[in-house]
Every structure is written in C-alpha cells, then in structure tokens.
Design brief:
This protein is α/β, with parallel strands linked by helices. The chain has 2 domains: 162 residues, D-Maltodextrin-Binding Protein, domain 2 (3-Layer(aba) Sandwich); 117 residues, 3-Layer(aba) Sandwich (D-Maltodextrin-Binding Protein, domain 2), CATH 3.40.190.10. Strands 1, 2, 3, 4, 5, 6, 7, 8, 9 and 10 form a 10-stranded mixed β-sheet that branches. Helix 4 packs across helix 12 and helix 7 crosses helix 12. This is MFS transporter.
Amino acid sequence: MKTFLRGLTVAGLFACAALGANTASAAGPYPNHPVTIIVPFGAGGSADVYARVLAQHLGQETGQSFVVENRPGAGAVIGTQYVAKSAPDGYTLLMMSNTQTVNETLLNNRPYDLMRDFTAVAPVNEAPLVLVVREGLPIQSVQDLIKAAKAKPGQLNYASSGTGTPYHMAGELFKSLAGVNIVHIPYKSSGGARTDVLGGQVDMMFDAVSTMTDLIQTKKVRALATTGNERSNVLPDVPTMAEAGVQGYTATIWLGLLAPKNTPKDVVDFLNAKIAKIVSDPQITSVWAKSGVTPMKMSPEQFTDFLKGDIDKWGKIVKSANIKVD
C-alpha cells in the first residue's frame, strides 16, 4: 500500500509539472496580450507622437496590440508614478523624455525614484533644439548675444514651455556655460512661448528644430545656433553651440522606454531588440531625418548608464541655478 501511495504521489507530481508546462505553453511567449505604453504628457507632443509610431511597429513586429495611453499632469509625475506601481511583467511601459531625468533633482517630493523603481529598456530618438531671437533684436550671433547679456545683466529674457522642461534647461545650461544672466519666462506650453517670441514680447527661446524651421526660413525669427553635437541636417547653415564658441554645450530632447523594476530580463532584451530594429528601418529614419530627428540605439545596460549621466548633468544645473518649481 505504501509503495502504491508513493507511486501515486510521484505520478501526481509529474502530472502537476506537466500541467504547469502545458499552462505556460498555452500562455505563449511574451507578449500574449495587449501592452500599454503610458505617455505622461499630453496628446500631440513629441513623446505622444513617437510612442504611437513605436506602438504601431511593435504591433507589426509581434502580432500583438501595443496601446498608447496618455496620463499627463504634475510635470509628468502622474503617468510616471502609475508605471512605477504597475506589475513588472512587460505589459505596462513608460515613454519618457529628459523631463524625467531633470525631475530627479528638481522635484524632491516625487513618489518614485527613476533608477530605483524602473528598468531601462531602450532609447528611441533624439533631436536638437535651436536658439532663436526675435526679429528686431540687434543680435546676429551667439557671441553678440553673450556680449549684450554681459553688458546688461538681467535685461534680456527667454521663454520656455515651463520650469524643468528641455527648453528651459537648454537655456539654463547656456547661461551657466556662457556666464550670462538672462531672465527665464516660463509658459504653460511651447506654443504660448513661441507666440510671444514671434510677437516681440520675449527676446528669445530654445525650441524644436522641426517647429522653428519654417519660421527661420521666412525670417520671422533669427537662428543663432543648434544644440546638438553636430549641425542639424534640417538647418545645415546654422552652427552648433560649440562652433559658436560655447564649448561643452549639448542639450537635446530625447525619448526612451522604461519598464517597472524587476521586469524579466528576457522581456527587456526582447523589447530592446525590437525597438533597435524599428528605429533602424530606412523608411522610418528617412521620415525622422526630415524633422531633424536621429534614432538612438543602446543596450539596456548602456541606456542605464546614459540615464545616470543625464540625471547627474541636469542635477548640477538645477542646483547651481537654484531652480525651483513654483
């Protein structure tokens, strides 16, 4: 009898193991149901636009739906926190920008820590900004601007889409490296800032190359420099900040994908490989190039180091400029 019962027990264990294997097999490999990409910004912005491009192509690559959901608010904190508290299974992802790396220093009371609560998946793309000044301002170059700002500290001003945004931080980095005092005027959106520069109410702003190109070409604003390491293919006649004499200056808008901490490595690696394939597609890179956007490719480990470096870079600017959120 004991031998019989022992046999039943062993058989039962094998049956359970087989059932578990069959259940896992039935579930199938990742992804086996829709994946949500949370965008912690409003609809229509660059993060939203490129998240939808990514979702479409990830869906085509995997045969599974990737759905974009906007959860804006509190300087991107609401959507970011939502993903931080989501299950680490690869089915809830975060489309982030360098707004989040700035927030690590700017927002002391945020309910998450980027490097503690997330896993780096992959970068997506980056784009330089362009520094423009209003028509009528007698400044023709970055060196003219620096001389004017030093001659009259605090009299020139620049607009941005809000405190801590890439447009704002680009201005603060310029002030720090050029050693000038230019007053920051925050707006609730880049559109409002842009309107007042065009209207002559504000002297200048850092803005997206894709947005400003037509305005530059029609001479409604004057471009002084772009903010990447190389000249923009969209504005090839405009020097970079380094070429204009501000050494060490780089300030781009970049996007990337994060997952909750402890997301399985095989899921992270799978997503990283798919995203690298998508951003390398010649049709995609060709379209992006027309807007001055460059694909980014890194391993999860390289992207982790990139995030740490960006947090450190902007943290120093936030502290040295004593930037506060109103």
